[in-house]
Structure formats: structure tokens, C-alpha cells
Design a protein that fits this description.
Blueprint (H helix, E strand, L loop, with lengths): L5 E11 H19 L2 H8 L5 H18 L12 E5 L5 E5 L1 H10 L3 E8 L3 E10 L1
Antiparallel strand pairs: 1-5, 2-3, 4-5
Helix pairs in contact: 1-3
Length: 131
């Protein structure tokens, strides 16, 4: 799938699910509305134990920001990154807003992501490529 593509940057993140559980307990819907798009939240909450999936989305968005090299500055919003799953369960990313503008400036045409989680940890890797 990467034939003819050039890797521009990679990012990785690891988070303890307990940290996300504590954020959820303190901030609930306010946290979710800031972190996830409505479609992402619909996916996450359809699972009985949704914290690992919520943590996975958090880790993925952190990894994506490492690819973009921005951190949380310059008008970046959590919801500028939407991670949904295809029919096979593979996550795919859609960028909007400032994240899309930064990716374009860097020549990134696609960001591949991988998310894994257990009851205790969630990790994600992102790879930005250009055509």
C-alpha cells in the first residue's frame, strides 16, 4: 500500500486507561465533546467497557499531532481529527480544520494509524505519507 509513497513523519503514544477513566469521572460529557466527534463517540460508547477505546482514540490523536509536529498550539482542536473504523475494524483518519492545513503544508496526503489497547493501556502509532 505504501508503494510510491514517501514517509514524512511518524508518531507514537501510550496512555494508561486509568488516567482516561479518571478524566471521564471528573468531566464526563464535557471531556468527550472536546475530544471526540459525535461519530467517534457513537463507536466508543457502543462497547460495554468503553474506557480502553476512549483511551485508544486519545493516544491516536496524540500520535497524529506528533506526525504534524504541532502539539496543541496554533488553533488545533481534538475534533480536527476523526478516527472511524471500516467494516473490517481498521481505523482510518479524516483531518479537518487546522490539522488538515498543517498536513497540506507538510505535503502529507494520508496518515495511517494503528491503535491497540488492553484493560490497562492504550497505544497508537501514526505514519504520515506523501504521494
Amino acid at each position: 500500500m505504501l508503494i510510491g509513497m514517501r514517509i514524512v513523519a511518524t508518531g507514537i503514544d501510550l496512555i494508561e486507561c486509568q488516567r482516561i477513566a479518571e478524566l471521564w469521572e471528573r468531566h464526563g460529557d464535557r471531556m468527550v465533546n472536546r475530544l471526540l466527534t459525535p461519530a467517534e463517540w457513537a463507536y466508543v460508547r457502543m462497547h460495554k467497557d468503553f474506557i480502553p477505546r476512549l483511551a485508544g482514540r486519545f493516544a491516536a490523536k496524540e500520535a497524529i499531532l506528533k506526525v504534524l509536529g504541532t502539539g496543541w498550539r496554533g488553533g488545533i482542536a481534538w475534533t480536527d481529527m476523526e478516527i472511524l473504523n471500516d467494516r473490517a475494524g481498521s481505523p482510518h483518519l479524516t483531518l479537518s480544520g487546522e490539522c488538515a492545513r498543517v498536513a497540506e503544508r507538510l505535503g502529507i496526503t494520508r496518515i495511517f494509524i494503528s491503535i491497540s489497547h488492553t484493560a490497562n493501556y492504550a497505544t497508537a502509532m501514526a505514519t504520515g505519507v506523501s504521494d
